[in-house]
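Regression test attached.
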Amino acid sequence: MSTPIIEVRELVKQYPSTTAVAGVSFSVPEGVCFGLLGPNGAGKTTTVEIMEGILPPTAGEVRYRGEPLGARFREEAGILFQRTALQDFLTVRQSIALFRGLYGRGLDVEEVIRLCALEKLADRDARKLSGGQQQRMLLAIALVNDPALLFLDEPTTGLDPQARRNFWELVRSIKAQRKTIILTTHYMEEAELLCDEIIILDRGRIVAQGAPRRLLRERFAEVLLELPRHEFPERARALPLRIIDASDRVEITTDDLEGTLRTLLDAQVPLTNLRIRPANLEDLFLELTGTELRP
Amino acid sequence: MSAIRRLLAVLHARNLEFLRDRATLVFTLLLPVTVVIGMSFVFGGPQRPLFKVGVLAAGIDRESHPFLQEHYVDFIAMPLRDQALRKLTHQQIDLLVDPGPPPVYWVNTDSPKGYIVEKLLLAAAPDAHRQPVTGAALRYVDWLFPGILGMNMMFSCLFGVGYVVLRYRKNGFLKRLHATPLSAFEFLSAQVLSRLTLIVIVTVILYVGIGAIIRFHSVGNVLLLMLLAILGALSMIALGLTIAARFSSEELVGGVLNLITWPMMLLSGIWFSLEGSPRWVQWVAHIFPLTHVLDAARAVMLDGAGLAQIVPQLLFLAATALAFLAFGAWSFRWRID
């Protein structure tokens, strides 16, 4: 197995009133899209900011290509923060050029502009971009040094569905260049679509790690039945079914769809609003932590 | 009523924010107290004397001559004869005395106050030898002009860079820069150079523009003045960066900057000379870079001083610029803690 591009060992981040990260260890192989999933406050941004060298850990260490984070890491890493403000009165091109000037090597500014589909916006004041355009510009800045390792911290939070899908397309094109991507998100669709491997964090600890499909296969049977909670009678809880409670619904997982439907019909459970779908990462999180992933 | 309710809600929240920002609160209270105490020390005390008389000596021994016991005369020790004669020529002092023996005095025959204080001297020392000099009084505006240039430079240096760095820290731009190979020293140096260029251009425009309006003519070397302006601006920009290096509160940084600029405004000699003020006031004044800028600028512009005469001030400004920049880089914070 090849040396991981980045490795996190026994990471702890303690604040006076809380422990944000409580002993997290994992390694990321080169060329994969690695996802950190969890609800707000799970410790994913803190973990990523320690990995980026922005925050010092209370204990533990991060190693890039086997070495502690240093000058090489800063030259070879590209970062897109959750929120970033840039200098006022600069155009998109000037903002990208500013960051290009901070690195010894990298891509041509015009090439990055083209890569992130910013040609028509290049001479516009960077403050006057929409949310999706802003994220594309910040992605361009993160790519300007042609990074080997790209951090994307909740890159599509706050974007409309169309802008989010456009952004995903961009990330997929970057993935195709075999760059390593570390993605934090609380959008399960995003993680399922982009990530080769994920860890799920809850209260500063890893509660699951692996490829999304494998994790789902390990934890869930083939299908998942959803019923509105208020339509699910209390007596039905005694049925021999695997039932998970979500906030507004009841979920039943099974590999015997016909048998389960028969059981529910026999128990006279109303099935008018029944929804059948495959299990997803959100179900996995619910199963693992007993809470829903989305805030 | 709902408008008042909303107003009160915002007022309450703002008050809580202010009161919980302890550092700002302390500075807000400290600043006026410091200014009042400082002003009372500088401007308080007995009535101001009517005349200024230079005495060619390292110190004033009032017992050494009856004239030195006169009331309402401010006797100022002036060990350097050439410097003292320049001040007499410009009517910055009314008489210059060498107690002797034999007693000798110099009087500016163009000065009305010199005429009167000469009578006082001759009453106390009729045998004193007279040495007449001539020279028009230095216009206050000529004396003030370097002070105004220096004050403009001070505000631009301290507030211009301090608030910009603070804004960068608060909006997360510094955090983003921290994720690149850029070092704190490189970032701060870039800020210094950017502001320095601006200040030098503005100062040259003001020097030429205002100089033409008030018909000011510098008798010194303009290149030397440029060197002085660069080193003075460097020192004060670096001071501004040092203040903004760590803090994240506009009010706190504003408080600290005011705490520095007010004493500089009063004690650096922008508006009036501190000659004759208590020794400790002069000592405090020389902590500030602006005092050294103005001392050297007036020496060059009004008295035609050369490089050798202002080397001490240039060295002070260069040393403080380096010290402030080094301290600023060491204590720099990229993000809000």
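Expected vs. actual: identical. Residues 156 and 164 of chain A are 6 Å apart (CA to CA).
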